[in-house]
Amino acid sequence: MELHPTLWRTCRVLAGETRLALLRHVVESPGKTVSRLAEEVEIGLSLASQELRRLQSRGLIQAVRKGSFVHYLPAPDPQVPEASLLLAALKDAFSRFNPAKDVQIMLIATALSHPRRIRILQELLAGSRTVPMIREATRIPPESLYRHLPLLQKGFLIRQNNRIFRAPRPAHPLAKCLVELVKATGKPRSS
User: Are 190 and 115 in contact (CB under 8 A)?
Assistant: First the structure.
């Protein structure tokens, strides 16, 4: 099966607390089974299996069968070009910050979990803009724009000063990676 995950859907997967906890465990201790991971994250086996499949569908982990057991490894899927960059950024974040700081990863991922927010960030990466300028360039209705801008701010990807929005250089490893991916992608895919 060929994978072509979009960046915003991958971010939507990374924004989930349970999925992020499972990914952290896979990265920090590769090769665990779904039952061991479910036990460590304190969730049911069925939910763990479902959430691991979601991470795998984004190309961030691989399932390797050994006898009757399936072991999970932090290995990017070569069919997903962004996966190796995202996984490297997540590994860096996991090594720098303790699990209590994973909320930052969720906020960053949530910020780009919608194609309109990616489009807004693309516009702001081209330069500082006011809301009317962003609205004109993106054609996003005002009510939607005012819903999306705060999420980008909470995700540390944009800042506002005197009604002017800009995209500062991010400090977090995942934010840096996502900004580079957004720059490289041009207009986001819709699927």
Answer: yes
Return d(Cα 126, Cα 134) in angstroms, integer: 11
List of domains in the chain = 7-79 (1.10.10.10), 104-183 (1.10.10.10)
Element (H, E) at 130: none
pLDDT one-digit tens code per residue, 29-39? 999 999 999 99
pTM over 0.70: yes
Instruction: Look at residues 81, 96, 102, 90 and name the one whose alpha carbon lies nearest to residue 7.
Output: 81
Cβ-in-10-Å burial (0-12, 13-18, 19+) of 112 comes to: buried
Give Cβ neighbours of residue 8 (< 8 Å, ≥ 6 apart).
112, 113, 114, 115, 117, 118, 188
Confirm if 46 and 39 have CB atoms less than 8 A apart.
no
